[in-house]
Amino acid sequence: MRIMGLDVGSKTVGVAVSDLMGWTAQGIETIPINEEASEFGIERLKELISNYEVEKVVIGLPKNMNNSIGFRAEASLAYGELVKNETGLPVEYIDERLTTVQAEKMLINEGNVSRKKRKKVIDKLAAVILLQNYLDAH
């Protein structure tokens, strides 16, 4: 069963998918969105779900450090409901605190990637990290 991981931001959604065995996560792309204009990239997401034959979606839940649900986590929950309603797939959430920070550190320390290039791939890498964390836990 292939699982898709999503790192939802206000301007982009990082997308990763698992291999068929559910062992590893690979980054696919970053979908541009615009929350303010209610443009959520759902059509592109549905294309990717179909192309990769995804059966479940995992969305990062950016809780506050005190474990409370803030504005960004509420936005991720709303995005998850939209995905569930539009695709009919089950949606699960995984605590993603600090995955973007972890992704940035990886790109700086291990990849020596410039700031401009980091902006283009950081959400996709964060999606890989959160999906891999989910796969490892299950």
Automatic annotation (TrEMBL):
Domain YqgF/RNase H-like residues, every copy: 1-103
Q: What class of enzyme is it?
A: hydrolase
EC number(s) per UniProt? 3.1.-.-
Stored InterPro entries: RNaseH-like_sf, YqgF, YqgF/RNaseH-like_dom, YqgF/RNaseH-like_dom_sf
Q: What is its main location?
A: cytoplasm
Q: Where in or outside the cell is it found?
A: Cytoplasm
Which superkingdom heads the taxonomic lineage of this protein's source? Answer: Bacteria
Q: Which UniProt keywords apply?
A: Cytoplasm, Hydrolase, Nuclease, Ribosome biogenesis
Q: Which GO terms describe its cellular component?
A: cytosol
Extract one GO molecular function annotation from the record. hydrolase activity, acting on ester bonds
Q: Which GO terms describe its biological process?
A: rRNA 5'-end processing
Q: Which NCBIfam families match?
A: RNAse_H_YqgF (TIGR00250)
Role this protein plays: Could be a nuclease involved in processing of the 5'-end of pre-16S rRNA.
User: What family does this chain come from, according to its entry?
Assistant: Belongs to the YqgF HJR family.
What name does the UniProt record give this protein? Putative pre-16S rRNA nuclease
The organism named in the record is: Jeotgalibaca ciconiae
